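Justification of computing resources. Each target in the renewal requires a structure prediction run like the one illustrated here; the chain below, 100 residues long, is used simply to show the kind of job we budget for.
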Amino acid sequence: MAREFKPQIVTANDLLMGDVVYLTRAGGWSRRHEDAHVAVSAEQAQTMLAHASAQQERIVGAYLADVSLDESETPHPVHFREVFRTRGPSNYFHGKQAEG
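Resulting structure tokens:
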């Protein structure tokens, strides 16, 4: 029996800056989790991952991450690892951590 598909996004690391980035609907990258394009089928998720993986000059380590959607269809991480990645580096306060 096939498992039920859960919404997913593509995440990776920016090759030059090292920041966590998310694939957007326009095919670019954002550092904001809420900007991520959400795949609603396994086929769409695989297509998005293939598009991301072809951008070796921009990103590294692309993979699919499960998300939950709120009433406005904004994606939210469901795994603690992904929650942690939204907060930025943990070794000192800078970037996202310094902002809030």
